[in-house]
Amino acid sequence: MPTPTVPLTPAAAVSLSGFHHEWQTWNNCGPATLAMGLSYFGFQGTQVDVAAVLKPDPEDKNVGPEELAAYARSQGFEAVVRVNGDLGRLKQLLSNGLPVIVEMWHTPRPNDGMGHYRLLIGYDDDAGHFIAHDSLNGPNVQVPYGPFDADWRVFNRTYVVIYIPDQAEVVAAIVGADMDDRAMYERALEVARAEAIMSPEDAFAWFNAGSSLTALGRHAEATEAFDRARTLGLPWRMLWYQFGPFEAYYAAGRFDEVLALAEANLRTAGNLEESHYYRGLALEALGQAEAARRAYQMALKYNPDFTPAAEALASVNSP
């Protein structure tokens, strides 16, 4: 397809076409959404093909956005994962013929929220909604801007753009300064702090501040933000998908807390390879090398391609 020019102002309405919608199988929204997004560029595979690579354990609860991007790159496409998106940027990407995968919160029933991906294919400013292909709810789902942003911000407004090499300059022009990680996380931190000032009881604002501080290497400040978020109350599945608290507490030497969080996660779902990994890190730091070894082995049992656990296991096994 031709490389579009970048309009300074997005169109009032956009609806991209040429996708193959897929209804997800169990725990498969990531692979299903990625397969839908890639179908726009001519990909002939399905969620089955994607899942075979990204989640060898069918019960795996989490496929991260970076994993989606890595798979897209393995198929010859380009992909970028960013946080701190905004509605205007999403519209500009869509206006330029670029569908966007967003990571959001989905609450089918009270106290049953979970992470979920949606593929944005358009929007309508007059009606005030995005148009999404949703692996749970069907094709061409209309998502009003307000509820959309409320659910999107739970994941620090993470988005994934897949594109062909000829579109790289367009993507870079739209994403702008946020193509640089440090600049992006500094801006994300500003947004989260502003939201926390506006609403001090907003657990997600504090959590997003902690996530951005962790990415910036400011772990002491990050732990304070995460402490505040946890005191205010987070959804019980929150740490199935986001690992900033593990990283920050570990870097700050709060190993008992890392262990407690990992074990709390595993009591709700025993096959979370990331939680087994962080449990292993904490155990190793607490001097329990054999227990750490078993934790890393459990992580690899559920995902043999989970590189951090493989590296940690090799390290703990070395004399």
Structure overview:
- The protein is of the alpha+beta class and 319 residues long.
- It folds into two domains: 13-179, Cathepsin B, Chain A (Alpha-Beta Complex); 182-317, Tetratricopeptide repeat domain (Serine Threonine Protein Phosphatase 5, Tetratricopeptide repeat), CATH 1.25.40.10.
- Helix content is 51%, strand content 14%.
- The protein is built from 15 helices and seven strands.
- Strands 1, 2, 3, 4, 5, 6 and 7 form a seven-stranded antiparallel β-sheet that branches.
- α8 (203-215) runs antiparallel to α9 (219-232), α9 packs across α11 and α14 (289-302) packs antiparallel against α15 (307-317).
- The longest helix is centred in the middle third of the chain and has 18 residues, at 181-198.
- The radius of gyration is 20 Å and the shape is globular.
- The N and C termini lie far apart (55 Å).
- The relative contact order is 0.10.
Question: Top keywords for this entry?
Answer:
alpha+beta; 2 domains; 319 residues; single chain; 14% strand; Serine Threonine Protein Phosphatase 5, Tetratricopeptide repeat; Cathepsin B, Chain A; globular
Distinct helical segment count: 15
Largest sheet: 7 strands, antiparallel
Roughly what percent helix?
40-55%
Mean of all residue-level pLDDT scores: 95
CATH homologous superfamily descriptor of the largest domain: Cysteine proteinases
CATH topology heading of the largest domain:
Cathepsin B, Chain A
N- and C-termini, Cα separation? 55 Å
Any idea of the CATH class of the largest domain? Alpha Beta
Say how many strands there are: 7
Looking at the overall shape, the CATH architecture of the largest domain is: Alpha-Beta Complex
Order of helices and strands: EHHHEHEEEEHEHHHHHHHHHH
| Rg estimate, integer Å | 20 Å
Could you name the ranges where pLDDT drops below 50 across 5 or more consecutive residues? none
List the domain count as a whole number: 2
Secondary-structure class: alpha+beta
Indicate the proportion of strand residues.
5-15%
Shape: globular
